[in-house]
Every structure is written in structure tokens, then in C-alpha cells.
Design brief:
Distance between the termini: 46 Å
Radius of gyration: 21 Å
Shape: globular
Order of helices and strands: EEEHEHEEEEEHHHEEEHEHEHEEH
Strand order of the largest sheet: 2-1-5-6-7-4
CATH class of the largest domain: Alpha Beta
Helix content: 10-25%
Length: about 375
């Protein structure tokens, strides 16, 4: 598990430390840097996959690739802290309590999308770390939308163990694995009819839209997969509905539920805005599912704007689904009138009753502000 991250001179993170745990939640106003830690991990992942981080033959190290499959951040001038005095970017990561820290340092090159390496950890056994192996899943904020068909990829779901950055292979995965048991039986929903993927996808998606049933089919000859929904209505089941006719939120959240149910202990799962397009009850349910997965060995890094999602986690703590020490909350903010354009990191802490020890200005407090004005 990634225990610690230190970021130096990367975007608005001039000098920021993140003591991490199983479930890590990043929040803050827009443009405050809450995505930046996640972006450093994605940059390392895509550089590793493109062999610009550790060359396969170990003959040369190239650099940090700023444009790739996971993320495109431009060139050096776009990611180097604008008021930094030292012309490099540094990352410090620690995996495991007794492990040696991994130190990465990259030279600043203003107009280059490849930042040369100036300091690098020894790459022995790097493949054991979840960030660099198949125990990794990233879901971007922009995910699959309702449509008539979806792409298939045996390579992604079987060889790479991925449902895609946008969840684009989710439907293919469901169709191929619907009758297999989920890896962690602790995530079996109390209303699930079996321990299988499909039974539990239906049950957890039922927290978002009651009675929903997922129908995923593959057509190998056309290399497409299709998705349809039924709904349990009393003692009957409705006919099939196309994704376009049941609202945006169901299809948009489906990759989130699938990525959590398919995860295993020691996996690293990064999800941006899991709550997008969902009713508050659905957002809270996803918070509860994330807490359950994290308590059973999956490490989660979540970026969110949702107080309902956060409250789902808080309730999970109170209900002893996850202990408070396994939850880390990071609130990034910036002083408007400060001469330095850099972010600070606050760490509101949860107690065993789900209460937070501080509520900084801008930290999920808009409801109280609006209510105060109304009253």
C-alpha cells in the first residue's frame, strides 16, 4: 500500500505531504490542486508503460512523460510551480511501512513534454508495486455515456486487467464475468441473490435505482457489446430499456461499481468524481461501498465534490464498516491574497462516530451557508 507521498514544485503543490491510508478522499474548490497528487501517479504509470521511466533493458532512463494514455498535462511550463526557484520537480513515495522511500526527481524543461530524470530509485522488483502492475485501475471523471453499443477488448479486460480509463470496457467485462464470483466476498450485498458479479452489480446498482437489472451481451463478430436495463416491478420484470432511456447516472456510475467489485486486496483504485450525475442517496451508497472495499484491503484514492459521498463514508465509520484510522481526508485550499500561488493541505480527521475535528471554510459547507441565508 502507498503509505506516503511528498510532492515538490509540481503545479500548485510547492511543498506538500500526504500521509495516506486505505481510503483517501481529496476535496477542495476548483483549481486548488486536489487532482495534483493523483496526476503525479498517473504520470508515473504512463511513463512506465511507455518505457520512458525504466527502460526494459535497463540501459537508459528517459524521463517523465507528460502526454500519454492516462493524462495530458502539456509541457514543462504547465506543470512546474510557477514561483519555484529550483528547476526540478520531485516526488517522494513510500510503499509499505518498512520500505525504502522511492525518490524521483525530474529536470524542468519549459517546452518539452518529457522531463529528464535527474534522480531515480532502483527499479528492482518495481513490478511488485500496484502502481506499476496489473493491480491498478483508474477511472477518469469523463466516463462512458449511454449509447447503443460499446467496444470490446479481450486485451484490456484479460491481459491488462482493466475496464479502461473511461470504463469503456465495462460492458464487455460484465458479459464475460457475470456468473463468476466476486473476488472479495465481504463486498457481497445483503440483497444479492448470489455471490456472482452480476448479482452484486444488480444489488449495488439497486442502491442507485431500486430494482434495476443489468443485461450485458457481446457480439464478437462485430466486436461490440450492448447494454440494456430491466426493472423489477412488483412480481414482474419490465421489458428492456436502452441506456439512453433510463437517465445518464446509471450508465455513468456502472464502471465505478464494477471497478470496486472486481478489486482485490492490495489493488490500487483511483476514481475521479464517483458521484457524478447521481441522486444524493446513490452518492452516499457509493461512499459506503468504497469504505467496505477499503476496509478489506483495496487502496482507494478518490477525488470528490460531494458531501453526500463523504457522509456515506462517515456513516460507514460510525457503523464500524471501516475504522476511522483507515480513512484520510485531504482538503486543498489557497489563500486568495497570498503572494505565492501555491496550495496548502489540511487533514480533517474522523472519530469513531463519524465526526470531523474541523470544517475549514469551503470544505463541504455550502449547504450550511445557504441554509443560514434562508433562515
Amino acid at each position: 500500500m502507498l503509505e506516503f507521498a511528498g510532492i515538490r514544485r509540481f503545479k500548485t503543490l510547492m511543498d506538500s505531504d500526504f500521509p495516506l491510508s486505505n481510503l483517501n478522499v481529496f476535496s477542495g474548490l476548483n483549481g486548488m490542486g486536489k487532482s495534483s497528487l493523483i496526476q503525479t501517479l498517473l504520470l508515473l504509470r504512463q511513463s512506465y508503460e511507455r518505457n520512458t521511466l525504466f527502460n526494459q533493458n535497463q540501459t537508459r532512463n528517459l524521463g517523465l512523460l507528460l502526454q500519454g494514455d492516462y493524462i495530458d498535462l502539456g509541457v514543462g511550463s504547465d506543470v512546474w510551480s510557477m514561483q519555484a526557484e529550483i528547476p526540478n520537480i520531485e516526488f517522494l513515495f513510500k510503499w509499505g511501512e518498512n520500505s525504502i522511500p522511492f525518490e524521483f526527481s525530474f529536470e524542468f524543461k519549459q517546452s518539452s513534454n518529457l522531463l529528464p530524470i535527474s534522480k531515480m530509485p532502483v527499479s528492482n522488483h518495481i513490478e511488485r508495486i500496484s502502481l506499476f502492475n496489473k493491480n491498478f485501475q483508474y477511472l477518469a471523471a469523463e466516463r462512458i455515456a449511454p449509447q447503443n453499443s460499446y467496444v470490446m477488448s479481450d486485451y484490456h479486460i484479460n491481459d491488462l486487467n482493466s475496464i479502461g480509463i473511461r470504463g469503456e470496457y465495462t460492458i464487455h467485462f460484465i458479459a464475460e464475468n457475470s456468473l463468476k464470483n466476486i473476488p472479495m466476498l465481504e463486498l457481497v450485498h445483503k440483497k444479492a441473490e448470489a455471490n456472482t458479479f452480476l448479482a452484486n452489480i444488480n444489488a449495488w446498482m439497486g442502491e442507485i435505482s431500486p430494482g434495476v437489472r443489468i443485461n450485458a451481451k457481446v457480439f464478437p463478430q462485430s466486436n461490440i457489446a450492448t447494454l440494456a436495463y430491466n426493472f423489477v416491478q412488483g412480481n414482474d420484470v419490465t421489458s428492456e430499456f436502452k441506456p439512453q432511456n433510463v437517465g445518464f447516472g446509471l450508465t455513468y456510475s456502472l464502471p465505478v461499481v464494477v471497478s470496486l467489485l472486481r478489486a482485490k486486496p492490495e489493488d490500487l483504485v483511483i476514481i475521479e468524481n464517483p458521484e457524478s450525475h447521481l441522486h444524493p442517496a446513490g452518492q452516499s451508497a457509493l461512499g459506503n461501498l468504497c469504505a467496505l472495499a477499503a476496509n478489506n484491503g483495496v487502496q482507494l484514492l478518490i477525488e470528490t465534490h460531494s458531501d453526500h459521498f463523504l457522509n456515506g463514508i462517515r456513516v460507514a465509520v460510525k457503523n464500524t464498516i471501516i475504522p476511522p484510522e483507515k480513512v484520510k481526508i485531504f482538503f486543498l485550499h489557497r489563500q486568495e491574497f497570498s503572494p505565492e500561488h501555491s496550495s496548502s493541505v489540511l487533514n480533517p480527521k474522523l472519530d469513531k462516530n463519524g465526526n470531523l475535528d474541523q470544517w475549514p471554510v469551503g470544505f463541504f459547507d455550502e449547504w450550511e451557508k445557504n441554509l443560514e441565508q434562508l433562515l
